[in-house]
Design brief:
The complex is a heterodimer of chains A (488) and B (615). Chain A is α+β, with helices and mostly antiparallel strands and 488 residues long. Chain A has a domain of 263 residues: BirA Bifunctional Protein, domain 2, CATH 3.30.930. Chain A is 36% helix and 23% strand. Chain A has 19 helices and 18 strands. In chain A, the strands form 5 sheets. In chain A, strands 9-13-14-18-17-16-15 form a 7-stranded mixed sheet, sandwiched between helices. Chain A is elongated. With 615 residues, chain B is α+β, with helices and mostly antiparallel strands. Chain B folds into 4 domains: 88 residues, Phenylalanyl-tRNA Synthetase, Chain B, domain 1 (2-Layer Sandwich), CATH 3.30.56; 204 residues, Phenylalanyl-tRNA Synthetase, Chain B, domain 3 (3-Layer(bba) Sandwich), CATH 3.50.40.10; 74 residues, Phenylalanyl-tRNA Synthetase, Chain B, domain 1 (2-Layer Sandwich), CATH 3.30.56.10; 210 residues, Bira Bifunctional Protein, Domain 2 (BirA Bifunctional Protein, domain 2), CATH 3.30.930.10. In chain B, 28% of the residues lie in helices and 26% in strands. Chain B is built from 17 helices and 29 strands. In chain B, helix 9 packs across helix 10. Classes of the chains: A alpha+beta (488), B alpha+beta (615). At the A-B interface, helix 11, strand 9, strand 10, strand 11 and strand 13 of A face helix 2, helix 8, helix 10, helix 11 and helix 12 of B. Strand 11 of chain A pairs antiparallel with strand 22 of chain B. Chain B: Its cofactor is Mg(2+).
Chain lengths: 488, 615
């Protein structure tokens, strides 16, 4: 009806000057008119210009009085000509009506609040307040003194009124054409689609949100790293053993028993299972020897090596514990070169903060072959990090009990404009390899880094708890982009 | 890695030149140390007191460099040692030669060790620095070095404790004894009055710095103590020195004693102290020895400054680094690392060196350490340019390349579960006992879980025996997420297992959860069917071992009547059900995770099954 009214009116008249008046004249709700104008404007049937006016609207209290009459009017009517005791009058009326009514009626000099009786002072009264409220409700103007009075009684409040002036638009037609937003089965099958006109598509809005499953960001990065390792010919080590003995985690790696990393400050030791049940005894003896008195050209650490320390179980502090098991196994067979990698969880009993958790993922790679050199290590690192898009590397001498030389790996970050540490590397010491039984000319080059740190840099996450753990927002997992590492 | 603080200007003075910060960082980088922080004394104090930076920063404040040094280089733990190492590295100084003063055996100071010391702290080594000149900065550095050594190699004084004394206040010979605490009386450093040793221990219980060392001797019937000829107490190691022999800026002759439970480390500590500070002695680099006489009559003269000769061949060094350096070049490079090398054969290609490892370089254990020093002096980054060209490492092919079946299967299943609309989460392996048992309505089953002995907080008490707590916590933290929530995790749990060498094993689990306006029991049931279908496992009737079926179960974490066991080839491999409302409304989790009163307001269904069984 509103649409017909507007389009019909404009067929003969140039302009609707005021949508409010237009609505009132036709007894159509103004909101409906506004919606139609907006829609017609969208399709450019009409051009519309905003009109704003300060108007007054009734409060809930004001609206009530348009029906019931003002409280003073109600009070007046409740007083019989002979008058009435105050308490009885009060019983006849709603408490708020009584209270306001008394005050206003007295002010209007309509009633006499006598000591015994409340009586009428005049015979007839005119409910002017109701009249004014009705006028405002109908959008008619009233005098400024009246506005003031009604406002003071909180019966009206100001409101900005919005409407439009409307003219024909470029696509004006007396009747709107049928438009659709999508092709339906009915339209499709009936052939009606030929007649259809599509509503102008909103090219600035996004499409419908889709439901579906998603993989975890950290594991998407893990998948790409695994691909890179596989491309480089590395084989995955089985790392599904969180519980490890100190022997494989430390002693086998020539990490002395007083080393700070073996403090309870850094390592989770276990109450159950507290100690390991079995170790390869002949190898344990060789490890004890190398710690205590040296051998294979080494001076050793020269201290009393204690079996109890080696037996203590812990949650592995690095996946290198697995590497030591793998290399030991390799040494029990005729030598064949190997390239190994793993990406799995490790545990540190350290204070947690924005970038450190008590558990994280370690990426580890190692090559075991005859005659490997420091050059080979640097070369492998260059290969590996190039796959990650890091081509500018430099190396800093470092210390690690089981590697010599040891190198920290730094990469130049173009975004941060500085060198950032991206990993650690080295050649395993002969004190680690020889007691295992690996031949003298076999070297092992290895490197390690965390999975979390490059992932945080990659996705611009600065709090590790936003990436990993139960506090991660599922919405972010769903929105997280694909990981393109290795395909640049 | 230990960090030492040195005054920048003093360091540059010791190096004989100044650097821009960037230049100095480059020098550190190539030598293998790191400029960690640049600060001032006042800034450090402010930071300790958590004060805001003051407006009026004093321009004249001394700039402090905080430098990280390798954990096995005790010789770099003070300015003197560090500056010397860098001077030698830059070829501005020759490698110093440390000598023992020429003292006849009779004139030599003696330390007699009493047999009782073997019960508590059996070793002692001593030395004297004669004619030393301290100033404020040197003195502070001397004290700091002791602190750093105590912190690092001495393992907070358990292995070795250092005492330094003004020798002119004492009279040799000395005795190292172990006596009942009640029979030792002396005035300790910084105190005015005399204490009995047992009272002193009580007194120090409130001393923030010293209380952490008390445990080392506290429970012993005898305390180690060092006396001079006049029964003056030098020290009560490893706790405190006597006030009587305290060193001051005016001290000329310093007596150093190191008591220990580890003799090797005691020798290293003593050597580090005397070599670095003999620089300030009247006879530079000359140290006066002390004879330590044990009850069995055996005697040792300390410090042991003997040089360790290590034979290293040129092909070994070249072969491991992957370069072809000439013998002469290697000698020069080693000199820069404070290692004197002498060529022992003339054949240049097969040259052998005798490398003299000085007492300052206790980190050199094996020829590979010498090889590393050659590489550092040559420059890792100089090697890099060559390495990239002729790298063989990554081109070498492993003999075979096998995929790990368990990890491959896990990844394949993860993708299938994601494809049916579940979102992957990754939760923690460590959890509290409460989350793992009580909150899931389960009994604390000690026969199953791996329990941590030294957790820092209750969050790290156990290794999860189920993926359930992590998944429920994820829902609790995402309760504003639009429903339904469909999440899953594939990960390892650990359980005790006597058949495994360490006594525990991992199990690879799949868990998934549905949470919405209804519990979605049939959705998780459907997921079980899908996983089985994708693994080619047929749905069979109860009792049939050729596929899988489900049967009624009665687990406390699920609602009765809406839960089922998954039986695969006759084996129970998992369970699913509507999460018991007492579990999903987990008020306790509230306290652990966030501090307002939250719970999971919606019904959930959960499934967990072991995927190793499907291999």
């Amino acid at each position: 009806m509103a649409e017909e009214a507007i389009l019909g009116y404009l067929q003969h008249t140039e302009e609707i000057k005021d949508s409010g008046e237009f609505a009132a004249e036709r007894n159509i709700d103004h909101n409906e008119i506004v919606n139609v104008i907006k829609s017609l404007h969208g399709f450019r049937y009409v051009d519309a210009e905003d009109i704003k006016r300060e108007t007054w609207v009734l409060t809930d209290e004001g609206k009530t009085y348009t029906a019931t009459g003002s409280p003073e009017f109600q009070l007046f009517n409740a007083i019989p000509p002979e008058g009435i005791p105050k308490d009885e009058l009060q019983k006849k009326l709603d408490p708020s009506v009584f209270k306001i009514g008394c005050a206003q009626a007295a002010k209007n000099k309509w009633v006499e609040m006598g000591k015994q009786l409340v009586t009428r002072k005049v015979q007839n009264v005119d409910d002017k307040v109701k009249g004014l409220l009705l006028q405002i409700q109908q959008g008619q103007g009233i005098g400024s003194d009246d506005i003031k009075a009604l406002k003071a009684r909180k019966l009206i409040v100001p409101q900005t009124w919005k409407g439009y002036s409307v003219r024909k638009g470029p696509n004006y037609a007396p009747k709107r054409k049928q438009v659709v937003t999508d092709l339906t089965r009915e339209n499709f099958q009936s052939g009606e689609w030929k007649e259809l006109e599509f509503k102008e598509y909103n090219y600035s809005a996004k499409g419908a949100p889709l439901e579906g499953g998603h993989l975890h960001p950290l594991l998407k990065v893990r998948a790409q790293l695994k691909q890179i390792f596989l491309c480089m010919g590395f084989e995955e080590m089985p790392t599904n053993n969180f519980v490890e003995s100190s022997f494989w985690n430390f002693d086998a790696l020539f990490q002395p028993q007083q080393h700070p990393a073996r403090d309870s400050h850094d390592t989770f030791f276990l109450d159950a299972p507290s100690t390991t049940k079995r170790l390869p005894e002949d190898y344990v003896e060789r490890v004890k020897q190398i710690h205590e008195t040296g051998g294979y050209e080494s001076r050793g650490y020269v201290y009393d090596w204690k079996r109890e320390e080696a037996n203590k179980n812990l949650l592995r502090t690095h996946t290198t514990a697995v590497s030591s098991r793998m290399l030991y196994q390799l040494a029990q067979k005729p030598f064949a070169p190997k390239k190994y990698f793993s990406i799995d969880r490790v545990f540190r009993n350290e204070a947690v903060d924005r970038t450190h958790l008590a558990e994280f993922h370690q990426i580890e790679g190692l090559v075991c072959d005859r005659g490997l050199t420091l050059c080979d290590l640097i070369g492998v690192l260059h290969d590996f990090f190039s796959h990650l898009g890091m081509t500018k590397l430099k190396f800093k001498p470092a210390y690690n009990p089981y590697t010599e030389p040891s190198m920290e790996i730094f990469s130049y970050h173009e975004g941060f404009k500085k060198w950032v540490e991206v990993g650690n590397s080295g050649m395993f010491r002969p004190e680690m390899l020889r007691p295992m039984g690996l031949p003298e000319d076999v070297q092992v080059i290895a490197w390690g880094l965390s999975l979390e740190r490059p992932t945080m840099i990659l996705y611009g996450i600065d709090n590790i708890r936003d990436l990993f753990g139960p506090k991660v927002d599922l919405g972010l997992i769903k929105k997280n982009s694909i990981c393109r590492l290795g395909i640049n | 890695m230990p960090t030492i603080s040195v005054g920048r200007d003093r360091l540059f003075a010791a190096l004989g030149r100044t650097y821009t910060q960037e230049e100095f960082e480059d020098l550190c980088f190539s030598f293998g140390i790191e400029l960690d922080d640049v600060t001032t004394e006042k800034a450090i104090v402010r930071k300790e007191k958590h004060l805001e930076a003051e407006e009026d920063v004093d321009e004249d404040e001394e700039v402090i460099y905080k430098i990280e040094v390798p954990a096995n280089r005790y010789d770099l733990l003070c300015l003197e040692g560090l500056a010397q190492a860098l001077r030698v590295f830059c070829e501005w100084q020759q490698i110093p030669t440390y000598k023992l003063a020429d003292v006849s055996k009779d004139a030599m100071l003696k330390m007699h060790v009493k047999p009782e010391t073997s019960q508590i702290r059996p070793y002692i080594v001593c030395a004297v620095l004669r004619g030393i000149t301290f100033d404020k900065a040197r003195y502070n550095s001397f004290i700091d070095l002791q602190d750093k050594l105590h912190q690092n190699i001495c393992r907070r004084r358990t292995l070795v404790a250092i005492g330094t004394h003004d020798l002119d206040t004492l009279k040799g010979p000395f005795t190292y004894e172990a006596l009942p605490p009640s029979s030792v009386n002396f005035t300790p450093l910084k105190q005015e009055r005399s204490f009995r040793a047992d009272e002193l221990m009580e007194f120090y219980k409130s001393d923030l710095k010293l209380k952490k060392f008390l445990h080392i001797i506290e429970d012993s019937p005898v305390f180690p103590v060092i006396y001079d000829r006049n029964r003056t107490v030098l020290s009560l190691p490893p706790i405190i020195n006597g006030a009587h022999s305290a060193i001051t800026l005016e001290t000329k002759n310093v007596f150093i004693e190191c008591t220990a439970t580890d003799l090797t480390k005691a020798k290293i500590v003593l050597n580090t102290m005397v070599t670095t500070f003999s620089e300030y002695c009247a006879n530079k680099f000359v140290i006066e020895p002390v004879e330590v006489v044990y009850p069995d009559g055996k005697s040792h003269i300390y410090p042991d400054l003997s040089i360790y000769n290590m034979e290293v061949s040129l092909p070994y060094v070249n072969g491991l680094i992957g370069v072809s350096l000439e013998a002469e070049e290697v000698t020069k490079l080693l000199n820069r690392m404070q290692l004197h090398a002498k060529q022992s054969t003339s054949d240049n290609k097969q040259a052998k060196f005798v490398v003299s490892v000085p007492p300052t370089r206790s980190d050199i254990l094996h020829p590979c350490d010498v090889m590393e020093d050659v590489a550092i002096a040559y420059g890792f980054n100089a090697i890099k340019d060559k390495a990239i060209v002729d790298n063989k490492g990554s081109k070498r092919l492993a003999a075979s390349l096998k995929l790990l079946p368990l990890n491959e299967l896990s990844d394949l299943i993860r993708k299938e579960v994601a494809m049916v609309g579940f979102t992957e989460v990754l939760t923690f392996i460590l959890c509290s006992k409460k989350e793992n048992f009580a909150m899931l309505n389960r009994k604390d089953d000690t026969s199953k879980a791996v329990i941590i002995g030294n957790p820092r907080s209750s969050d790290f008490e156990a290794v999860r025996t189920s993926l359930m707590p992590g998944i429920l916590k994820t829902v609790a933290h995402n309760k504003d997420h639009p429903k339904p929530i469909k999440i899953f995790e594939v990960g390892d749990i650990s359980v005790l297992d006597d058949n495994n060498d360490v006594g525990a094993k991992n199990l690879r689990q799949l868990a998934a959860l549905y949470c919405g306006a209804n519990a979605g029991f049939e959705v998780v049931h459907g997921l079980v069917d899908r996983v089985m279908e994708k693994n080619g496992v047929p749905f069979v009737s109860s009792g049939d071992k050729s596929g899988y079926y489900i049967e009624r179960s009665d687990e406390p974490e699920f609602l009765a009547g809406r839960q089922a066991r998954i039986i695969y080839k006759g084996k129970h491999i998992g369970t699913f059900g509507i999460v018991h409302p007492e579990v999903s409304v987990i008020p306790e989790i509230v306290i652990l995770i966030v501090l307002n009163n939250f719970d999971i307001p919606d019904p959930c269904s959960f499934v967990e099954l072991n995927i190793e069984s499907l291999l």
